């Protein structure tokens, strides 16, 4: 069987080599291991050995020619039968090609699957850029090949006409295998070898197109859905989510209570408490809710408010927080060491103003500050107005809300306490 | 129990192992008469002679290469690398040769080699003598990495390392050589891959390596005053890593800070935090925080240098943020 000699890939990034010199001539006897020719790449000049024994029966390339990697250079045959065309091939550009029989590929410049990578042995034809029969120039991109590493556009390398296409889109072709033939003259009827693989790939493409179409149809709806989900997304720690799931609760209940996000495991306990309250509630009963928060940031915030916003009275800050937690401007009575201060309070810190303690207005809410006392836990029972009592328990601040059923619904009571405790815990939330 | 320095503990571990096994020898720069710049090896050359405490010319790749060859051919070298920063010079010998020989020989060859070196900033040694590069080595399969956090660990881990049949790198904190800890009178070994729970707690887990264990313990003391009960864990070896103990603690406390003196990016803290995140996600009530050294060359200026490494106060502040339920990474 004749052995085709191709331009070897000698370097990692080499795509062609200059055949510098022939060491054998047409018709010479060749032993395996004999130096056939010399190739120069951008890095080095190397001698290429014959891979088999026989006679050099075809020489396609003259010395001095730049040859793409994988291109056929010569043929070594077992017998010395110099093919008639081999002489002509030496003047390759003028080699005549005739597509005589459509069952056979036309004769001309054979385009082979190039070796594009170091360890590549096949390449997938992704697309043909020229139609069979079309005129091509050497620098025209003829087809695209995909290897395991990349997709590469391959130039024709010869001027002429694409007379034969021997592999279809989707075919995985061995490196060195002929996939197209370029002839000097325009073919009467271009030769095309169809392949089952091609058909299959086309079908896949069709279904892919269908998918794309379906996707496009649903596109106008999809982003809106995403946006909604984003807005509805409740921020909670993984543990909080797990607890909620395990206990059959809903994070949205916390949202409805107005408790600020993100939620953590401790907030889930808070969620359980107000939900249990209504079950034992009756017309006569009172409400008693307790929240615990750390206070460090409130003190910093008070200092900041005094320095930066000129609010030197921390009681007015508390009154503002309370009004904001109620959700409307309110008259807040702040009771510290038995002294009473009344504020017309709004959520805007600067807008909270002192009003005379003898004012006839009934306060909306009483704020009893027992922080700097040794009182840790309170249970006063309901008064004529709802009362928020602040007491200190170690590093924690305890806030107790006491009111009657008629003063606040369970839900409003929980909201008020959660809002107020949340603001004390992270005063910056108040500003946001 | 005796109260001895980390230096003495290392010295004792080497002497004991060299008496026990005559194939153990020390090789490195200034290891014999000088006993290293930190005086860790003082007195060993008097007992074991210059054939077992081998001074070499100043060529880290050279003596590391010799040690790897010696280890493959039947001895147990303990290589002394004067500063951890010089590990870049022995990377090929350590990572391409020692780490891979057992694997590539199909288990036929062992490399029972210990590389002793150090880490730690704030010694005013500037950028090329202050790095903590253990993460670089821990990245390479085939090398075990031990980070003793006191004299006790230094002795127990080194003895285990010398008896290990494949490469172990021990990073001692160069600022801890003169710090004392209680060490048993009798011989003892500390197995690899067993974390040490230094302090029990239920609110937050502080995982510290090497000298950062002390930082975490100090932070835990401060946090206790606030009523925050911190658990402190010392993994002792980062390869192998005692995941089980770390995960168990993370699941218990739901909050974790990992503290290590290597640079924070792509470091030990990231690896541990990531494993906890992957394997204890549904138990976490806050993001796992990393606290490493700043991603800057270690400054020579003392004021700046102190600023680049994690401190008890910094750990305390981070712990409080996690405890408060604050939005840590508000997007």
How would you describe this protein?
The complex is a heterodimer of chains A (432) and B (331). Chain A is an alpha+beta fold and 432 residues long. Chain A folds into four domains: 1-90, OB fold (Dihydrolipoamide Acetyltransferase, E2P); 100-194, RNA polymerase II/Efflux pump adaptor protein, barrel-sandwich hybrid domain (OB fold (Dihydrolipoamide Acetyltransferase, E2P)), CATH 2.40.50.100; 200-233, no CATH class; 281-431, Chloramphenicol acetyltransferase-like domain (Chloramphenicol Acetyltransferase, 2-Layer Sandwich). In chain A, 27% of the residues lie in helices and 30% in strands. Chain A is rod-shaped, with a radius of gyration of 44 Å. By secondary structure, chain B is of the alpha/beta class. Chain B folds into two domains: 2-183, Thiamin diphosphate (ThDP)-binding fold, Pyr/PP domains (Rossmann fold, 3-Layer(aba) Sandwich); 196-323, Rossmann fold (3-Layer(aba) Sandwich), CATH 3.40.50. Chain B has eleven helices and 14 strands. In chain B, the strands form three sheets. A seven-stranded mixed β-sheet of chain B has the order 3-2-4-5-7-6-12, with helices on both faces. In chain B, strands 9-11-10-13-14 form a five-stranded mixed β-sheet, with helices on both faces. A two-stranded antiparallel sheet of chain B has the order 1-8. In chain B, helix 4 (91-104) links the parallel strand 4 and strand 5 (114-119). The longest helix of chain B is centred in the N-terminal third of the chain and has 15 residues, at 6-20. The radius of gyration of chain B is 20 Å and the shape is globular. At the A-B interface, helix 4 and helix 6 of A face loops of B.
């Amino acid at each position: 069987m004749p052995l085709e000699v191709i331009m070897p890939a000698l370097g990692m990034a080499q795509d062609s080599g200059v055949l510098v010199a022939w060491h054998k001539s047409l018709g010479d006897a060749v032993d395996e291991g004999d130096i056939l020719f010399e190739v120069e790449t951008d890095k080095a000049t190397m001698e290429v050995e014959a891979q088999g024994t026989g006679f050099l029966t075809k020489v396609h390339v003259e010395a001095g020619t730049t040859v793409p990697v994988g291109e056929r250079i010569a043929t070594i045959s077992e017998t010395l039968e110099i093919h008639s065309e081999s002489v002509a091939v030496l003047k390759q550009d003028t080699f005549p090609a005739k597509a005589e029989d459509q069952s056979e590929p036309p004769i001309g410049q054979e385009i082979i699957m190039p070796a594009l990578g170091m360890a590549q042995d096949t390449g997938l034809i992704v697309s043909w850029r020229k139609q069979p029969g079309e005129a091509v120039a050497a620098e025209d991109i003829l087809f695209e090949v995909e290897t395991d590493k990349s997709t590469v556009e391959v130039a024709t390398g010869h001027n002429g006409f694409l007379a034969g296409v021997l592999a279809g889109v989707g075919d995985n072709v061995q490196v060195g295998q002929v996939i197209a033939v370029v002839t000097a003259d325009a073919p009467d009827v271009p030769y095309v070898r169809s392949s089952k693989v091609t058909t299959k790939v086309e079908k896949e493409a069709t279904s892919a197109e269908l998918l794309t179409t379906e996707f496009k149809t649903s596109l106008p709806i999809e982003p809106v859905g995403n946006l909604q989900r984003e807005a509805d997304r409740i921020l909670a720690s993984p543990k909080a989510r797990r607890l909620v799931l395990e206990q059959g609760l809903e994070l949205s209940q916390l949202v409805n209570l107005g408790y600020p996000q993100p939620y953590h495991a401790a907030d889930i306990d808070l969620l359980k408490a107000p939900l249990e309250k209504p079950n034992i509630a009756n017309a006569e009963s009172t409400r008693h809710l307790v929240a615990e928060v750390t206070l460090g940031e409130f003190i910093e915030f008070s200092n900041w408010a005094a320095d930066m916003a000129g609010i030197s009275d921390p009681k007015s800050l508390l009154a503002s927080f309370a009004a904001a937690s109620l959700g409307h401007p309110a008259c807040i009575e702040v009771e510290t060491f038995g002294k009473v201060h009344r504020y017309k309070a709004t959520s805007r810190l600067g807008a909270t103003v002192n009003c005379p303690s003898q004012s006839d207005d009934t306060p909306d809410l009483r704020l009893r500050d027992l922080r700097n006392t040794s009182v840790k836990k309170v249970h006063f029972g309901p008064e004529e107005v709802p009362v928020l009592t602040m007491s200190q328990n170690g590093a924690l601040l305890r806030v107790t809300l006491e009111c009657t059923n008629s003063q606040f619904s369970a839900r409003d009571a929980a909201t008020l306490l959660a809002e107020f405790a949340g603001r004390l815990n992270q005063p910056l939330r108040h500003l946001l | 129990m005796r109260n001895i320095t980390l230096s003495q503990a290392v010295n004792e571990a080497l002497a004991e192992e060299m008496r026990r096994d005559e194939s153990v020898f020390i090789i490195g720069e200034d290891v014999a008469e000088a006993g290293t710049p930190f005086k860790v090896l003082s007195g060993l050359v008097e007992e074991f002679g210059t054939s077992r405490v081998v001074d070499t010319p100043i060529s880290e790749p050279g003596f590391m290469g010799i040690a790897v060859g010696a280890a493959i051919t039947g001895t147990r070298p303990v290589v002394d690398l004067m500063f951890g920063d010089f590990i870049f010079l022995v990377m090929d010998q350590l990572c391409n040769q020692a780490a891979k020989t057992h694997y590539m020989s199909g288990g036929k060859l062992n490399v029972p080699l210990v590389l002793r070196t150090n880490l730690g900033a704030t010694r005013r040694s500037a950028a090329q003598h202050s790095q903590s590069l253990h993460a670089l080595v821990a990245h390479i399969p085939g090398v075990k990495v031990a980070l003793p956090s006191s004299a006790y660990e230094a002795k127990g881990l080194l003895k285990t390392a010398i008896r290990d049949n494949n490469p172990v790198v021990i990073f001692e904190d160069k600022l801890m050589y003169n710090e004392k800890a209680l060490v048993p009178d009798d011989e003892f070994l500390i197995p690899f891959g067993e974390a040490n729970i230094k302090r029990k707690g239920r609110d937050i887990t502080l995982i510290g390596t090497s000298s950062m264990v002390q930082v975490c313990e100090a932070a835990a003391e401060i946090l206790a005053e606030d009523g925050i009960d911190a658990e402190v864990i010392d993994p002792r070896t980062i390869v192998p890593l005692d995941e089980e103990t770390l995960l168990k603690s993370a699941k218990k406390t739901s909050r974790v800070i990992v503290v290590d003196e290597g640079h924070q990016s792509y470091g030990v803290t990231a690896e541990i935090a990531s494993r906890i995140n992957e394997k204890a996600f549904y138990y976490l009530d806050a993001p796992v925080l990393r606290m490493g050294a700043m991603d800057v060359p270690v400054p020579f200026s003392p004021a700046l240098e102190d600023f680049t490494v994690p401190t008890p106060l910094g750990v305390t502040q981070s712990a409080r943020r996690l405890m408060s339920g604050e939005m840590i990474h508000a997007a």
